[in-house]
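Box 3.1 A note on notation
Throughout this textbook, protein chains are presented in two layers. The first layer is the amino acid sequence; the second is a token string describing backbone geometry. Keep the layers aligned when reading.
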Amino acid sequence: MVFEKVAETQDITPGQMKVINFGAEQVLLANINGTFYAVGNICTHEGGNLSTGTLQGNIVTCPKHKAQFDITTGKAVNPPKVLFMHPKINNATTYAVKIVGTVIMLEHK
């Protein structure tokens, strides 16, 4: 397992999110009650930026069509709100997070 430093713990206060570039991917880091989680920043429905959405508890809501994901697991918990449609969406990609002192590290896949 190869981990890379991506941020410092003080960069993301509890209840906050931050998008980072991780290789060729955009990853959304979130601090949920002092525990850090990382998921792909791009919504699996139509590519909205989750980082510009809202975080309530451990649920991030995409600003584009309101699809919701559990940031602790990447699971899609509510489909997008599209009139007369009920599209199924994929779960968000998750990333292993390791904290070393005050350093947030992500695992390369």
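Residues 3-107 form a domain with the Rieske Iron-sulfur Protein fold (CATH 2.102.10.10). The chain has a mean pLDDT of 91.
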